[in-house]
Amino acid sequence: MGHCLSCFKNQTNADVTMSQRKNDDITEIVTTSQVPTVMISDYPQEEPLLHNNENSLNSYRNIQNANTLNSYNDPCTGELTVSQKSHNINSEKTIKPFYQKLPSIPRTMSSFSSNELRISETKINQLFDLYKDSLEDAILAEGIENLCNDLQLNPDDFKVLVLAWKLNASQMCRFTRQEFVQGLKNLKTDSIKGIQHKLNEITSDLKRDSENFKDLYRFTFKFGLDVSIGQRILPSDIAVLLWRLVFTNNEPPILDKWLKYLEKNPHIRGIPKDTWYMFLNFCDYVGDDLSSYDDTEAWPSLFDDFVEYENDQMNQNVTKSDMKMQD
């Protein structure tokens, strides 16, 4: 029994000695490979890195070599190696930032937005103050005349009517501050040059856009009324002036005869709104030939009188010409 215990002790001492040698050998390998023990914990593995695990040490060396290879720069040029360039190219192919898919903003849109941002209500108010009356917060006849001079327009110019339309002016020879400021904001301008440019654009557009012209035509009747006394019928002399003005660029063939008829008949003292509105339809209907006029249609009575007068004038002219031929 003592012999067995002695053998066991000897065998145990031998195992301990052998184990210590193995540990020393592993420690020597780790030291030779310069693997810091701190770094081992920085690379989590599926299998923990043990000092006596040869596979784990080999895995660590492979990771370290791969990282060294990927981050290596050419010592002469400082440029990335082929391996690193390849890695970067692959990364670029796989990772595409979302903003590359967004369309670029056109220059026209960006410039349009910047122009809108430059519109200043303060500048519009300052412009209004240049022309407003000294006693009333409104641009009156004298101020409008000065404004027209700066716009290089005559006060009876068609473009002045267009400006009043765009300002939604409630009556002639008067622009309130609210009308002026809001109107120029809608036009997106705050300067004399800007107003000139906009008026040129709108005037050209009215020659092509019949719906816009209808809106201007209807506004003209309201614009001619004296709202201060509650006027609802346009005086004939004012109506004649406004008809000539509103048809400046597209005069109907019948307009001249119609206006002469009104001027020769002073008993016609005013033009109601329905007569003003229907005259535009009347011009389209008859053109330059009154023979197509049908008095059974629901036309204003003033149109019936006008057509009858013109037919009488025509018959008289025919009779006179016949008599001259007989002579």
From TrEMBL:
KW Nucleus (keyword) present: yes
Compartments, record wording: Cell membrane; Cytoplasm, Perinuclear region; Nucleus
Pfam families given in the database record: Cullin_binding
Recorded superkingdom: Eukaryota
Keyword Coiled coil in record: no
GO CC terms, sorted: nucleus; perinuclear region of cytoplasm; plasma membrane; ubiquitin ligase complex
Main localization category: membrane
Keywords: Cell membrane, Cytoplasm, Lipoprotein, Membrane, Myristate, Nucleus
UniProt-listed GO biological process terms: positive regulation of protein neddylation; protein neddylation
Molecular function, one GO term: ubiquitin-like protein binding
Domain DCUN1: 119-311
Function: Neddylation of cullins play an essential role in the regulation of SCF-type complexes activity.
Protein's UniProt name: Defective in cullin neddylation protein
Classification of source organism: Eukaryota, Metazoa, Ecdysozoa, Arthropoda, Hexapoda
